[in-house]
């Protein structure tokens, strides 16, 4: 395990303790400009993640959901301190910590941690994907009509003008499913579901999974087939052959 990954796991678990502390307890809530919610748990989690990383890598840059972009470095940490805030605030136990590390414009490491279940998914570029208790692999199905598709925040597709194309894909696919975000990615990363897409999101919502999918030989782009990065608001992941077909239909 590299020092990068070691620090990221430590930071994620510290944030997870904050999740457990506040879950199903009263917290202060604010409404952000985009109408999404942010709570004390989000803010404290992001603060402890940044503090933990800075203790080892003081010169690195950060891109956090709550604090935005800061610093100027070859390395940038991308942080969603509480992915699933709305679930968290409703007392639904589907949320996690997401931490990714970019070197230049490439995601080279990713961590997803579900504190309530002590469930950890990790990846370092060139070193494989680790998922608690399961083998990481992508489905190699290439026929849309035989594929299961899953979606992160279906409502968000209206924000990227892809709602009609997405509904057509839903009709053409074998089946669709919507789980909680962490379970959806895990289903793709273990070959149970062929493809996943999301719209109207921030890069921090899916950055750790970019390196995981690519490490398994899959393809990750935005819904127009372009490379994803900090300014991306959508994503599409699948094996390379199926991905090409999905991008074509979305166009």
Keywords:
single chain; 251 residues; alpha+beta; Fructose-1,6-Bisphosphatase, Chain A, domain 1; D-Maltodextrin-Binding Protein, domain 2; 7-stranded mixed beta sheet; 5-stranded mixed beta sheet; 7 helices; 14 strands
Number of strands: 14
What is the CATH domain class of the largest domain?
Answer: Alpha Beta
Q: Provide the number of structural domains.
A: 2
Strand count, sense and closure of the main sheet? 7 strands, mixed
Number of helices: 7
Can you tell me the residue ranges where pLDDT is under 50 for at least 5 consecutive residues? none
What is the CA-CA span between the terminal residues?
40 Å
User: What structural class do you assign from the helix and strand content?
Assistant: alpha+beta
Would you tell me which CATH topology of the largest domain applies?
Fructose-1,6-Bisphosphatase, Chain A, domain 1
CATH H-level homologous superfamily name of the largest domain: Fructose-1,6-Bisphosphatase, subunit A, domain 1
Element order, helices and strands? HEEHEEEHEEEEEHEHEHEEH
Indicate the radius of gyration in whole angstroms: 17 Å
CATH-level-2 architecture of the largest domain? 2-Layer Sandwich
Strand content: 25-35%
Biggest sheet strand order reads: 4-3-5-6-7-8-9
Mean pLDDT comes to 92
The proportion of residues forming helix, as a percent range, comes to 25-40%
Q: Which descriptor suits the 3D outline?
A: globular
């Amino acid at each position: 395990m590299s020092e990068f990954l070691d620090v990221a796991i430590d930071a994620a678990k510290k944030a997870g303790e904050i999740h457990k502390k506040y879950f199903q307890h009263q917290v202060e809530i604010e409404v952000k400009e985009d109408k999404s919610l942010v709570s004390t748990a989000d803010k404290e989690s992001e603060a402890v993640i940044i503090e933990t990383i800075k203790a080892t890598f003081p010169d690195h840059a950060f891109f956090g959901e709550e604090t935005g972009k800061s610093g100027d470095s070859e390395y940038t940490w991308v942080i969603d301190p509480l992915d699933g805030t709305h679930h968290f605030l409703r007392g639904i136990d589907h949320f996690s910590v997401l931490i990714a590390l970019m070197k230049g414009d490439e995601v080279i490491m990713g961590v997803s941690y579900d504190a309530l279940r002590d469930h950890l998914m990790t990846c370092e570029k060139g070193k494989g994907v680790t998922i608690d208790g399961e083998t990481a692999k992508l489905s190699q199905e290439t026929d849309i009509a035989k594929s299961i598709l899953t979606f992160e925040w279906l409502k968000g597709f209206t924000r990227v003008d892809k709602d009609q194309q997405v509904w057509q894909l839903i009709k053409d696919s074998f089946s669709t499913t919507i789980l909680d975000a962490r379970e959806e990615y895990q289903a793709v990363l273990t070959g149970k579901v062929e493809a996943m897409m999301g719209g109207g999101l921030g890069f921090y919502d899916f950055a750790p999974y970019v390196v995981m999918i690519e490490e398994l030989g899959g393809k990750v782009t935005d819904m127009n087939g372009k490379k994803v990065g900090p300014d991306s608001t959508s994503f599409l992941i699948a094996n390379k052959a199926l991905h090409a077909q999905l991008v074509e239909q979305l166009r």
